[in-house]
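Page 42, continued from yesterday. The earlier attempt failed because a stray header line got pasted into the input along with the sequence. Redoing it now with the clean sequence only.
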Amino acid sequence: MLPVADPVLVIACGALAREIQALKRVNQWDHLHLQCLEASLHNRPEQITERLRKKIQAQRAHYQRIFIGYADCGTGGALDRMLLEESPEGEIQRLPGAHCYEFYAGHSEFAELHEAELGTFYLTDFLARHFQYLVIETLQLDQHPELLEIYFAGYRKLVYLSQTQDKTLLGLAKQAAQRLELEFQQVHVGYGLLQTKLNQQLEGSRESQMHVRILA
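This time it went through. Structure tokens are written below.
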């Protein structure tokens, strides 16, 4: 029988909540505990680091293992500096890369996409689902359609990095490309490094618990 693992707290961006819950359910990660900050913080990345610091400080007495479900996400390295301050031994880690597009697609795959067309606008399942609010309404393109040429003058393509093979989301992503007057491409990447890194954290928790039992 496998040892009962200590719970791992994942403090994540709300934009990843649906995907993390899906992975938890499919993989039976019962020892994964999830707490999310609101996805709208991506519009205010300067607030992400301190919000995460407060979460870590509030929860570290309750969890031996904490993992951060964020990439750098526009913090300009501030997130990594905070994690080093809060965990000098590197025990609290985050998702790799600069943003969700990179950890979903993988480092080399995203670099290839980026180099192929620098003027690319990316969508994930979350962004396809909430495109109307997060892009159209937030940028006020519904009220001022003339702003489209200003905001997206440098873009040529929309790449939908899909996590699931969902026909409804595919349709929404295609509509988004049409709305922005961009060439459309779907690249199915699944959960990428999100799944890999979560699995490593959860397996590490199980192995640590096994080691404790052997020593006992």
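Notes: Residues 107-188 form one domain.
Reminder to self: strip header lines before submitting.
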